[in-house]
């Protein structure tokens, strides 16, 4: 079997959990995914099997689209709802003011990855070091955000649609928006809706 599978990942499992489950179901060992989703996140995973695994890098280079529910007035050590939440002083902001702030994040920007991420530091995953309470030093990286639009406005809960290039952390975007406004922000929900021309609507739902 040398196929590309589109899978709609549920929340609460890792991307590699999806691989493990599919290996059992399909009886195929040679399998990989094109881009990790956090355990909290749902949505599109491209799974390659057999010889199709050679295409994984090309899929990873494709642009992505996400829908994110961001809650402001709180921070999280993981930048999402799976972390330890801390209350901050909530600021009042109008939709018009918020839209002006969003413009600052369009285009090529420098973004700091979350310390709870799969980035490697001296050969170790950053999240492994962070979980041990060790200092994690990461460097900001250049990423590209093509578009951010507001889907729902219910301050301090805002649902955004983000179109971006590879390597963009939506968790970091939420954190940076909160820092810019001055009241903190974190990802409450995250869903990947597209990878290049591949849409989550065409994916097979995977049960937990």
Walk me through the structure:
- This protein is of the alpha+beta class and 208 residues long.
- The protein folds into two domains: 4-62 and 200-205, no CATH class; 64-194, 2-Layer Sandwich (Pseudouridine synthase).
- It is 21% helix and 38% strand.
- The chain has five helices and 14 strands.
- The chain has helices at residues 15-26, 56-60, 95-103, 126-131, 170-181; strands at 4-9, 31-33, 42-49, 64-72, 74-76, 85-87, 107-111, 120-121, 124-125, 141-154, 157-164, 185-195, 198-199, 204-205.
- The strands form three sheets. Strands 1, 2, 3, 4, 7, 10, 11, 12, 13 and 14 form a ten-stranded mixed β-sheet that branches. The chain has a two-stranded antiparallel sheet with strand order 5-6.
- Strand 12 (185-195) and strand 13 (198-199) form a beta hairpin.
- The longest helix is centred in the first third of the chain and has 12 residues, at 15-26.
- The mean pLDDT is 91.
């Amino acid at each position: 079997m040398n196929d590309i599978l589109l899978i709609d990942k549920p929340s609460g499992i890792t991307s590699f959990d999806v691989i493990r489950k599919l290996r059992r179901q399909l009886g195929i060992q040679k399998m990989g995914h094109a881009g990790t989703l956090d355990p909290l996140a749902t949505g599109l995973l491209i799974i390659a099997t057999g010889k199709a695994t050679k295409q994984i890098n090309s899929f990873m280079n494709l642009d992505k689209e996400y829908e994110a529910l961001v809650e402001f007035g709180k921070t999280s050590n993981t930048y999402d709802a799976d972390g330890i939440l801390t209350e901050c002083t909530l600021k009042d902001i109008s939709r018009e003011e918020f839209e002006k702030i969003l413009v600052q994040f369009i285009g090529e920007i420098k973004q700091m990855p979350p310390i709870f991420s799969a980035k490697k530091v001296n050969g170790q995953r950053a999240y492994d070091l962070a979980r041990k309470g060790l200092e994690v030093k990461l460097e900001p990286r250049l990423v590209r955000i093509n578009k951010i639009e507001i889907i729902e406005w219910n301050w301090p809960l805002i649902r955004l649609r983000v179109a971006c290039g590879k390597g963009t952390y939506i968790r970091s975007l939420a954190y940076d928006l909160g820092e810019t406004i001055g009241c903190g922000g974190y990802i409450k929900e995250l869903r990947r809706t597209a990878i290049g021309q591949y849409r989550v609507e065409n994916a097979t739902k995977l049960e937990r």
